[in-house]
Every structure is written in structure tokens, then in C-alpha cells.
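User: quick one - fold this with ketopantoate bound?
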Amino acid sequence: MRIVILGTGALGCLFAARLASQAEVWMLGTWAEGVAAIQRSGICVSEDGHTWRAEVHAVNDPAAVSEAHVALLLVKSYQTERAAAWAARCLAPDGLAITLQNGLDNGPRLAAAVGEARAVVGVTFEGATLLAPGHVRHAGRGPTYIATRPQIAARVEHIASLLREAEFHAQTTEDVEALIWSKAVVNAAINPLTALWRVPNGELLTNTDRRSLLAALAREGAAVAQARGVRLLFDDPVQRVEQVCRDSATNRSSMLQDVERGRPTEIDSINGVIVAEGRRLGVPTPVNEIIWRLVRGLPHHHIR
Ligand code: KPL
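Assistant: Sure. C-alpha cells for the protein plus ketopantoate:
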């Protein structure tokens, strides 16, 4: 089985390293330092107090990979178009492209590039931090879900079992919307506030001003999901978001890390989609809209 992983960031490295024992793995990315480090010395994974290495192919040219059975998209959501176009070039006609990215709008963009029949949406709750190019710290374990449908059920099950052999908690699901929206409601509340205030997740609970905005964002996101007919995995979005803040108290959210590094954020694919869906469905989302604009207005925030 030939697998191409789009993206050489933290999760790309984690998935590539683990899958290297099960498949021929290619990493494809535009980040020169990341590709060079992996070419030079493979991927380095630090977890549970030890560090191990895996050898994979790493390239920056999609022409180097062809007839891949699986393409895994693990780039930031503002890089989806390019990664999806590259996946289309690398995939075999009966290959599948799977997005495991953050955000609510990756599926349609992937399908536009590779075709509906080859596009698959998933979500992962694995947590990883990039320590250096090609060196990832496996920071938190969580399940990975891949959406299945009758036409591709056998291939999706095969990929899920490969991921399980690579020690991921992988499952297939027919209701991936529930997972994506549940994750997005949490991300829409925590990520922008930590990025704007530059605090770790647990600090969002330390005073009533922070807590009230956190709660308002979570309630609006859940209301939009509900209007869309999505069955969220929790009854009380505020309780859920506060629990995530406690469980990940010392984490610096991915959006905070992006802002600190002067990179664009995934705000459009998270809060931006909640606002757009709210408008479409007649659900007011004033707090998400203000927060969305505040993050987009941050200095150096590039807009798609
Ligand atoms: O998913 C996350 C992120 O940072 O993107 C949370 C759950 C908020 C943890 O930091």
C-alpha cells in the first residue's frame, strides 16, 4: 500500500512515522526545512519518555509520487486547495483522499479537486507538537474517525485497520458531521480567545469576562450545529468547552501557536463557517462574528 501524506507538520510527521511500518509512506510538503530534515534523518517521534525514528520518503514535488492508494491531508485548512490538487495528481484512480484537518469546510474543497467518489472526511483527536523540523512530540492520544459510505466501505475499513495496526485508535463512522461539528464548536470557543489574549487554554476559566465570552461562542456554535440537524456529542456545549479547558489547561492552542509564529490561522474554516452557516440558517452568531473579525484583523494575519 502506498500512502502519501500531505503536510510535514506535527500530525503529518506522527501519522507518517507510525504508518511507515505498515506501508510505503511518502510525505509531500512545501516547507523546505521540514522536507530536508526528513530526507536527512527521517522522522523523530518523542512520546512516553522515549524517542524513536522512522524512515519515509519526503519530497516537495507531487510529480514524484504516483498511483498512491491513500492520500492523507494534514495541512492547515488555509492550505487545503493546494494539498487537494496535489492529492489529485498523486492518487490512483481508485485511491482515496482523506482529510483529517481542523475546520468545517475541507470536505467540499477536497471533493472539488479529487472528485466526490475519492473524497473522504475524517477527524482526529490526536495531539502533537512539532519540536523541530521532522521532530514531533506526541502530546495527547485520542481517537481518529473516518467517514464511510457503502460505495467505499471495504476500502475505508481496510485503511482503518491499517491505522489500528499502526497503533491509532481508528474507527469508521457514518455520522462524521457530528464529530467535525463537535470538535469545531470547541475549537471556535477556545482557539480564538487564547490567540487574542495569548494565554494557555486553562487561563480562559480564570475570570468571568473570559468565561462569559467562551460560553457565548460555544452556545452560538452549538445552536448553528443544531439548526443544521447535527447531533453533537454533548448536551451542554458550555460544560464541554470548560472541561476541555481544564483537561488541556497548560496547552497553547493551535491558533495561539499560529499567531505566535506570525502564520495565518484557521479562523475562516472554524468561526468563519459557523458565521456563514448561521446566516444561511437564520441563527444569530454575533459573538463568533466579532471574534472572527478580531482574529482576521490581527497584524500579519494573511487572508485567504
Ligand atoms: O484542538 C485544540 C487546538 O488547540 O486546536 C484544543 C482542543 C483547543 C487543544 O488546545
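One thing worth noting: The chain is about 45% helix and 20% strand.
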